[in-house]
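hey so u asked for the seq, here:
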Amino acid sequence: MSAEAVSLNHYLVLSGVLFAIGTAGVFLRRNLITILLSIEIMLNAVNLTFVAVGRYLGTVDGQIITFFVMTVAAAEAAVGLALVISLFRHKETLSPEAFTSLKW
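ran it, structure tokens below
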């Protein structure tokens, strides 16, 4: 399969499927680590869209925006993982239902 055989629509469909998988993971899973991973899948789906549309338009704007999204995703992962570790140390569970209050 040549590069021309893969059109923009293929990338957008793949991105939509990845985003749907990530959204389902956020709403259906009951583990904070899995929820964080699902958010990362959603961000990668958005990155794929930016890169594909940027390539389709012949600009590097999509790649630049993807670089910023990856930077924010790395910061989000670091802060999110630190929060999950802190919450696990206090409640000894990763279930989101156990953290309904910000006070403990």
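The radius of gyration is 17 Å. Residues 61-91 form the longest helix (31 residues).
lmk if thats what u needed
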